Amino acid sequence: MIAVNKAHLIMLREQNLIAEHEANGIGRALLGLDQEKLRNNRYTGKFEDLFFEVEHELAVLAGERAGNLHLARSRNDMGIAIYRIVLRGKLLTVLQSALSLRRRLIDFARKHAETLMLGYTHTQQAQPTTVGHYIAAVSDSLGRDIGRLIAAYRNCNRSSLGAAALTTSGYAISRERTAELLDFDDLIVNAYDAVGGADYVGEIAAAVQLAAINLGRFSQELLLWGTTEFAGIRVADPYVQISSIMPQKRNPVSVEHLRSLLSACAGDAGTVLMMIHNTPFGDIVDTEDDLQPYVWRCLRTLDSVYRLLAEIVATLEVNREVLRARVKGSFATLTELADTLVRKEGLPFREAHGIVASLARRAYRSGMSASDLTVRMLNETALERIGRLLSLSEDELHEALDPERFVAIRDVIGGPNPQEVNRALSVQDAELQEAQEWTQKKQESHEHKFKELDRTIAGWFLD
């Protein structure tokens, strides 16, 4: 609020809308305000709101001329500008934490680019992949969340100032100048839209809600992987809780908290969207005072989750041997066996698929795994399905069933081949670097502009 006051005063003075001596007096009062006292004051009802309390304090310091600070503006355009300034700062804080998490995910994926694991579809074993390939996918998803938060920031960081109540002003103000002084990237051009539009906060809520839902899916996976039965990962000691009665327990409560916090985050974001729903398109409390705490809270929760998850990922242990053995003991490579029959035998894929599916059912009923399959069994199945033997050798069969080869030959863009995963991670590195530099630049620019307000006003007294 004080920064908005300073920017408006500078603009009024530059536009010669108030006398220099009046501007100087108001400027001294603004610089002399006890902001700590204002922050810590409790609401007593003496003033309708903080705006009028600040106006009173300025009048005490500068006299009646302080009233001219409100020339050509309203609480409407001023309030929206304040909300947007606050929200852009909170977005940058969340983005920094999101980027730190992405760095941990990229590093973790690179470390495990060759760590075999089963990929799942419909919660069932599907095909071999690697931990690095999976985590790179989580990082890509987070990258899109980051992109949506940046887009929400860009639409948020636009100035409503100069819209006044809803029709601008008859005074020759410069909306561009106040936007520049407060480091807004642009104007909300239409004055009615400036005070009536609420999609800037809705867009933030939508981006946060989707980010929370995306990360909630990953936290659910982590909880599954950490079970004794799955035994794929081990959460580090600082992030587990012991049982008060069972000595053996290591409860991964940090991940449980992640999941519940993300649900609460998505809920608060959903509340924001529902509060905007069916409200009039104009200045109204539903989209302002009562709404802001929910969007602040969902941003704060998302930020805390990003920071916590970054530490969990950085200290997570992967049981490579268990994951590898599970792949070896599965039928997950049978897609490659069907592909091999297409390449070697010239069969249509659907026919090859049928042969291998029948083979898998036969092996499963016998309690066998893919490593137990033989050419004899394959030929018996082929005779039943297509009436002829196949020319596949035992070595070719074992090669088709080898999970390392399965992963290695899937080197198409986006595949699990370790070199391809590392290439994709290099692209993610570049995206991360660009976003980090953008975020840092924005934060530094905002801080610089706010300090510049004080220097500009203080400079009036040195002339």
Helices and strands: which structural class? mainly alpha
Shape: elongated
Give, in order, the helices and strands: HHHHHEEHEHEHHEHHEHHHHHHH
| Level-2 CATH architecture of the largest domain | Up-down Bundle
User: What is the level 1 CATH name of the largest domain?
Assistant: Mainly Alpha
Q: Roughly what is the average pLDDT, rounded to an integer?
A: 96
| CATH fold-level topology of the largest domain | Fumarase C, Chain A, domain 2
Put simply, the count of helices is: 18
Question: Into which percentage range does the β-strand content fall?
Answer: under 5%
- The overall number of domains is 3
Low-confidence stretches: none
Strand order of the largest sheet: 1-2
- What's the β-strand tally? 6
Give the N-to-C terminal Cα separation.
27 Å
Full CATH superfamily name of the largest domain: Fumarase/aspartase (Central domain)
Largest sheet: 2 strands, antiparallel
Gyration radius from CA atoms, angstroms:
31 Å
